[in-house]
Amino acid sequence: MKRVMIVTGGGDCPGLNAVIRAIVKRASQEKDWEVIGSIQAFNGVLWEPSELKVLTTEVVKGIHFQGGTILETTNKGGPFAWPVKNKDGTWTTIDRSDEMIRKIQYLGIDAVINIGGDGSQRISQALYEKGLNIIGVPKTIDNDLSSTDSTFGFQTAVEISTEAVDKLVTTAASHNRVFVMEVMGRYAGWIALNAAVAGGAEVCLVPEFPYDIDIVKQKLEARFKRGRGFAVVIASEGAKPKDGEMVYEENTEVGYENLKLGGIASALIKQLKKAGFEPDMRETVLGHLQRGGVPIAYDRVLAAQLGVKAFEMVLNEDFGKMVAYRHPYFVAVPLLEAVAKPNLLTLDNALVKTARGLGISLGIDREVELKK
Question: pTM score > 0.85 for this model?
Fold first, then answer.
């Protein structure tokens, strides 16, 4: 009996369960394969005792429309940075990757499918270089992996964000207010810009284009006449003013390496008030609402296709690669290529041009933008 292990790491994402189900369903068509799930990414292997779960077709029955992941997930620690508490109460990290690979081999696991984003696939590449048979599946609501046309979960996050804009428009119009809605997007503004175009926002601020608060103010003031009017601003959590920084707080969580972003909506309102903008303003932070809940049909289909292709890559021993969607095909790309370049918005992007054509302000100088 051969074994493949599934790992879900990083932030949760609508469609994770659909990928798990697809892998199991495809593996069930082979007589000699068993699917194992590791709880909380690689923690399930590293813990003593191990916490692994046999995944049969009965176990995954009906999970494709459920949010989250039945294997749980984590974005802290990992095989290369395992948190260890010192005697004095401080924390450090150690590399347990060699130990983990030996344990995986001892368990009779022939291959690993790691479902995760940029950080998870960097771990995949490092493990592959150490000799582990591993395949990646792209997972990020930010849609920031350039090697694949789309990542599952992204469209669901856009749908959730757009529905929120629809609701904010009605209350903004009723109260003659400006609403600033903060969405996820650490370094890429795809969720924000898609929701802005779909929902009809007046301003969209994204990490790729540092904004000028005076330009934002001018756009919003044009929406008001004799004190009456309304507007919706959408801001990625990673948006920042020109010559400024992203809004974040120092993170004290053990093993969590990323900056803890959040607060751009509140910061932007303060900046607008300081600049002299007078109309009433309110903030809305969607936060993890974008990650939770039922995945839309598009993401379920995409997740299923990625899962089936991932297991077929295992059968073909096509290791050290990540499955990618390149319309209309699903292909295998080297992990090094998959994480080499992020998928970021550029001024010549078609969606950016559409947004500008609709009159959506990105908070940057129009003339400078048009020249690029």
Answer: yes
